[in-house]
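Quick one:
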Amino acid sequence: MSFSQQIKTSKSDEYYTPKYAVEIILPYIERFNHIWCPFDKEHSEFVKTLQQLGKKVTFGHIETGQDFFCYEQVPEGAECIVSNPPFSKRDKVFLKLYELGLPFAMIMNNNGLFDSKSRYELFKKNNFELLIPKGRMRFFDETMEVKNSPNFQSIYVCNGILEKQIEFCDMEMK
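Output:
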């Protein structure tokens, strides 16, 4: 089974981001007019919220034929990448993000973020920033029902987005 096919058939990685988790990154990406959300469908809170703010949003999802790992270049005009990618594929996601070269902000489980030797080396060699919210994000499943708070904290791992390498922010869960 190909790598992309594994993602397409894995339901354990298909969780949706609540609006309050999208709102905490907005002050840091307001300078970008065209944002690429490569792990998102039309009903994604990233897509809806950014479009409501007047941003141009290019979105795509493996289920609708847009495979992030097959892109050789970013969509024309895109200035940054923002999304909630599959946590289980984070090594491949970060490799591809750095290869593409655009600023990015990805929601990611912070547990073990630097445990992997290859990921440790990747972050050591490249710029990265962390936006750490107070509290834990709760995600939705495909039925759009809130799941219980996960047993880990989710943060934004960024490149070229934040002013400082580590930023802390409040997160008002609605």
